[in-house]
TrEMBL record:
It comes from the Bacteria. SUPFAM superfamilies: Glyoxalase/Bleomycin resistance protein/Dihydroxybiphenyl dioxygenase. This is VOC family protein. PANTHER family: CONSERVED PROTEIN (PTHR33993:SF10), GLYOXALASE-RELATED (PTHR33993). It comes from Streptomyces tamarix. Gene3D superfamilies: 2,3-Dihydroxybiphenyl 1,2-Dioxygenase, domain 1 (3.10.180.10). The lineage of its organism: Bacteria, Bacillati, Actinomycetota, Actinomycetes, Kitasatosporales. Residues 11-125, 139-254 form the VOC domain.
């Protein structure tokens, strides 16, 4: 388990879930990952921070009652200048839906979407750096963008965050790793016609678990669904699951664990 410090621009630094039933979400994720919860910044409305061994790992907020939106995890990418990043997003063909706005003295944030419609957040840290631990079971360990085709959106993220793209996997796979200052930050996978019609392009968060098979069973016991059964791959053993409100995420036992 390692503690987080300042991230290079473009590095994932936080994940946040928006749901209708905040209490039910706390119960589900608390049982699944062993999280405890404390109130988050009041400026964000009904919102809690999830803790693992007393350190922040994720956020969960309540959707406004008048918004007909599905529950979903959002990955936040680090920025040294949220206002400048907002301008870059707009110039690159993306959309800024929320912000830039201050979250108390914690930092400054945006909610954006790329030209393909995938939603992501931007976080300019002040008092709050983001996810405080990584690598242990119950922590977010990777983020991947699923989209129709890699090249157009990789160009967008490269323009906004300065990533260097690194092709990943066999030549017949449309998959790219985004490097921030030479270090892997996230991946982009072009899935063509396999992109879910009901979701479109979207970011996915991967959470480390000790036993993906047992965790997948626990998801179902807690009222969620297993969308893709556990299987082995180059990243480790993974499964795609959804919580009781339908928010999709990946559980993984990373290679080497």
């Amino acid at each position: 388990m390692t503690e987080a410090t300042r991230r290079e621009p473009g590095t994932p630094c936080w994940v946040s879930l928006m749901v209708r039933g905040l209490d039910a979400a706390e119960e589900f994720y608390g049982e699944l990952f062993g999280w405890e919860f404390q109130p988050g910044p009041s400026q964000l409305g009904p919102y809690v921070r999830a803790l693992l061994d007393g350190r922040e790992v994720a956020g969960i907020g309540r959707l406004p009652a008048d918004r007909d939106l599905p529950g979903a995890w959002t990955a936040y990418l680090a920025s040294d200048d949220a206002d400048g990043t907002a301008e870059s997003v707009r110039c690159g063909g993306g959309t800024v839906a929320v912000g830039p706005l201050d979250s108390g003295d914690a930092g400054r944030l945006l909610i954006c979407s790329d030209p393909a419609g995938a939603v992501f957040g931007v976080w300019q840290a002040a008092a709050f750096q983001g996810t405080a631990v990584a690598g242990a079971p119950g922590t977010p360990v990777w983020n991947e963008l699923l989209t129709h085709e890699c090249e157009p959106v990789v160009k967008f993220y490269r323009t906004v965050f300065g990533y260097e793209p690194d092709p990943l996997g066999p030549d017949d796979q449309d998959r790219v790793t985004l490097l921030a200052k030479g270090r892997p930050a996230a991946s982009v996978r072009g899935v063509g016609a396999d992109l879910p019609r009901d979701r479109g392009a979207h970011w996915t968060t991967w959470f480390e678990v000790a036993d993906p098979d047992a965790a997948a069973r626990r998801v179902e016991e807690l009222g969620g669904k297993v969308l893709r059964a556990p299987r082995d791959g180059v990243e480790g053993r993974t499964a795609t699951v959804a919580d009781p409100e339908g928010a999709v995420f990946t559980i993984v036992r990373s290679s080497g664990r």
